[in-house]
Specification:
Bound molecules: pyridoxal-5'-phosphate
Distance between the termini: 70 Å
CATH architecture of the largest domain: 3-Layer(aba) Sandwich
Largest sheet: 6 strands, mixed
Radius of gyration: 22 Å
Strand order of the largest sheet: 1-2-10-7-8-9
Number of helices: 13
Order of helices and strands: HEEHEHEHEHEHHEHEHEHHEHH
Length: 371
Amino acid sequence: MLFGPAWRMPDMPLSLPPLDLDRAFVREAIGKLKREAARSADTHLLRLELPAYPGIGFYFKDEAAHPTGSLKHRLARSLFLYALCNGRLRSDQAVVDASSGSTAISEAWFARLLGLEFIAVMPACTAPGKIRDVQALGGRCDLVDDPAQVHARAAWHAEQGACHLDQFGLAERATDWRGNNNIAESILAQMADEPDPVPAWIVCGVGTGGTSATIGRYLRYRQLSTQLCVAEPTGSAFARGWAGRDTTAVADAVTLIEGIGRPKVEPCFLFEVVDAVVEVPDAQSIAAAWELETLFGHRYGGSSGTNLVACLRLATAMRARGAGGSIVSLLCDRGARYDQTLFDPAWLAGHGIDLEKERLAIRRAIGTGAC
Ligand SMILES: *Cc1c(COP(=O)(O)O)cnc(C)c1O
């Protein structure tokens, strides 16, 4: 018996622990994050008509429209909330994370909102525009020559007392996969009145794996037939490991596309919820990123180009089968971040990329319905 005679008021009064003054900080910080979310609008779902693909609707969610310019705005908000609600983040702590840039920019923005010091551990080869953005938001960049060392360096900062936001370790957990306006719920709500409201495919790349995990889980939870296609640079660890569920897979090439194409399988990769993987050579992703400017009037980054190519390949297969339906993908970040890299013809030539040839091929794919 739980509440039998053995359960009595103890003779000694319980000595209460001292009031945790930091709870006031946590309360206020969560209030700030909630108010930021309430002031935010949803990102646009842009529709694209491509006459060569009749009966197929293309939709692109404009994640560049977040205040910090990428889909990492969602992740950074979730990581701060997760750290605070887990009691891992106190008022006197700095926060640290390893990032190829986009996450660092969003985390710096939220750290400033909460009045916390932020350290971004980045590979030294990160696009200069991203480093500038982090610094402009008051963040400190700790640049590491060997990209493989960023995690160890972030762990070192955590040993010195910083709170490790740990995007690669926590991305799939920090996001509420059953809803709470996560990216999948938002997409499906925005599709509700479209001709094909349940997409045939949703297409995204894999960096942390958080976005693909959230979308894949949500599609099952909502009992939808939509399939999830991962668009990755050719030879990435995700592409190598997916078919055999091999968590020891490593990339067999280094990609120029930032944000996706990880060199190894990260803890948040969920191979099981992915229905197809399309591998895209960097030159095609970059040409497609240039083409996005023609299609939408704005520049987007390389991983958005990777997504466009994968959408065209899926649409080509659907068209060949005489199938119609909708394909939804993401515009992951703003192109301005890559002015000195992907959008600099001299830089491209230096990396052996024949931009004009690749752009012609993409235009042909868009114009003829065959990619
Ligand atoms: C992080 C990132 C991705 C991939 O998203 P994940 O949710 O981390 O898998 C794609 N594109 C860009 C530009 C990114 O920064």
